[in-house]
Amino acid sequence: MPTVLKVGPYRFFFYAGDRDEPPHIHIERENKVAKFWLDPVRLQESGGFSRSEISRVYELVMEYQDSLLEAWDDYFSD
After folding, report:
1. Could you give the CA distance from residue 22 to residue 5 in angstroms, rounded to a whole number?
2. pLDDT reported for residue 78
3. CB 29 within 8 A of CB 9
4. What ranges do the domains of the chain cover?
5. Alpha helix (H) ranges present in 1-78?
6. Global pTM?
7. 47, pLDDT greater than 80
8. Closest by alpha carbon to 69, among 13, 23, 32?
């Protein structure tokens, strides 16, 4: 599961088996893992994060959306 970005306490990654789903990113901090679709950006699973922290993570996903989509395409392209 490649880490594609680290911002503060957050690790942004996807699983090698995620290929069959639309582009998305998992965000981990400690024992919490949220999932966001990337195009358009929307929350799929909050993974134990508080509402305010999900808002912060959402802003980060929006800020890095282009690079996250590029990492997805680079990793999953044949």
Report:
1. 19
2. 66
3. yes
4. 3-76
5. 51-63, 65-76
6. 0.93
7. yes
8. 23
